[in-house]
Design goal:
alpha+beta; four-stranded antiparallel beta sheet; 2 helices
Amino acid sequence: MQTAPEETEALDFVAADEDAGSRLDVAIAAQGVCTRSAAQNWIRDGRVTVDEKPAKSASMKLRAGQHVVMTPPEARPL
């Protein structure tokens, strides 16, 4: 019996003072939600916003207080 896939919940964080100047992909990976390369894929796929605007580059530098929202893809069965 198959079940409908669950919607993926958005994850978010506000960049702290220690995140200021960090690359976006590094800051996402530091949250423990994915690897840096997965963060780069999420950014490329339009799954990450910064202050409600789509993130354009994994290498963008964060400023303290910026709100980052990530919508991970649905998990695939192993």
